[in-house]
Amino acid sequence: MIEIFWGRGSPYSWRVQLALEIKGIPYRSRQLSFADEDLKSDEFLAINPRGQVPALRDGGSTLYESIAILAYLDAIRPEPALFGNAPEERGLIWRLIMECVYHLEPHMTAFAGTIISGELPEKTDEAIASRRQVEQELDRLEALLERNDYLAGSRLSAADMAVYPVVQLLLIAARRENTEAVSGRLCRADAHFPALKAWCRRIEALPGFERTNPPHWRV
Ligand SMILES: N[C@@H](CCC(=O)N[C@@H](CS)C(=O)NCC(=O)O)C(=O)O
Q1: Domains within the chain, CATH numbers bracketed
Q2: What is the largest CA-CA distance in the chain?
């Protein structure tokens, strides 16, 4: 059986858990603790020499990097197809994933990281600057989701798996206490990003979602 190594609060791990549930692939959940340095154990470094979650072990094969794991899962269980079928659809899904990786993830890390690691109010200016970049990206997603149920069109895809946990981490950070000065439109996402919030609810209604969503992540 596939083993999935994941960590509490890791948006990248969540991507993989979502894909496993949506595809109905049975897996053994191997939760690692950041605090206990599990990620730096010899056993885990043999699976991912970078010492990061998520990672997968399937018999004698191992793999890390969340998007690569999504591609692996899609190859072993092709239905429902997460990376599209037609060339245009495939290209669009990959474009959306890469836009998330290059244009949203770094600002998410800067914004949510500052808040979650308790660096406010010292890093207020940096948090506001990254939040503005995040808002620009969320405006793009909002425009897409005003037209379609899912990011790449009418069908759920790997783009949704990639982006959803990143959006959740942003919203969780923006709703923390004493973040009003830096959170901007993120703290009232229902009003400012209604299509994005409706898309979140659509994903949360998918079968198996509850098994992927640790309670401390709920917003
Ligand atoms: N690009 C990687 C990012 C993985 C990553 O940054 N994981 C974090 C948890 S969210 C981690 O394991 N951090 C521990 C560390 O770097 O020591 C992916 O998509 O899988």
Answers
A1: 2-76 (3.40.30.10), 87-212 (1.20.1050.10)
A2: 50
